Amino acid sequence: MKALKERILKEGRCLPGGILKVDSFINHQMDPVLMEEMAEELVRRFSDVRVDKVLTVEASGIAPAIMVGYLLRKPVVFAKKAKPSTMSDFYTAKVFSFTKNREYDICLSRNYLSEGDNVLFIDDFLANGNAAVGVIDLVSQAGADLVGLGFLIEKDFQPGGAMLRSEGYRVESLAIIESLEDCQVKFKE
Ligand code: 5GP
């Protein structure tokens, strides 16, 4: 998606270890106009599938997910990164965090994901695919169907995208980064 790629080139910063910082328009300050355009593009790409619910993981997936859910007029639910003391009946899965370099639990109330739900997973980044694998686990515990996974930015030099596609999942990413070597953003054409 041209507008996102241009913005990454203009404002993206890279950190050691293959991390792209997009804090000025996605991860800290957010550009709602770009967010809306990105959500429209994700909705367009998944227009051939039936979606009952949009699922994401807190915190950085919530903004794109709510925009997608708003356009689809479907509920948006986010997996929580810690078990809330007020929640008793939930699905849980373990996720290894790429940016924080540690494992954490994600959990989701059984009230908000049910058997037969057609689920679209939306997140900001796809790197090693660990968050996606955790979400796939939650969806399967619920007996729901994952109809697709949509990301704003995919880092092709990390294995998540290839792994998910080889397992047959439908993955759509709006900007695919081939390399961040020498802090140069190189997109996959
Ligand atoms: P994965 O689970 O695919 O390894 O990593 C995805 C999650 O890690 C995303 O939800 C995102 O929050 C975070 N992440 C992975 N790579 C990056 C990156 O280069 N920049 C930022 N800002 N977040 C990242």
Task: Describe the secondary-structure layout.
Blueprint: H1 2-11, E1 13-15, E2 19-21, H2 23-27, H3 32-45, E3 53-57, H4 62-72, E4 76-79, E5 90-97, E6 102-109, E7 118-126, H5 130-142, E8 145-155, H6 160-166, E9 171-179, E10 186-187
Parallel strand pairs: 3-4, 3-7, 7-8, 8-9
Antiparallel strand pairs: 1-2, 5-6, 9-10
Helix pairs in contact: 3-4
Bound molecules: guanosine-5'-monophosphate.
Question: Could you characterize the architecture of this molecule?
Answer:
Helices cover 32% and strands 33% of the residues. With 189 residues, it is α/β, with parallel strands linked by helices. The chain has one domain (2-187): Rossmann fold. The strands form 3 sheets. A 6-stranded mixed β-sheet has the order 4-3-7-8-9-10. Strands 1-2 form a two-stranded antiparallel ribbon. A two-stranded antiparallel sheet has the order 5-6. α3 (32-45) crosses α4 (62-72). It is globular. It starts with a helix and ends with a strand. The mean pLDDT is 96. Residues 19-22, 27, 60-61, 98-99, 123-131, 160 line the site of guanosine-5'-monophosphate.
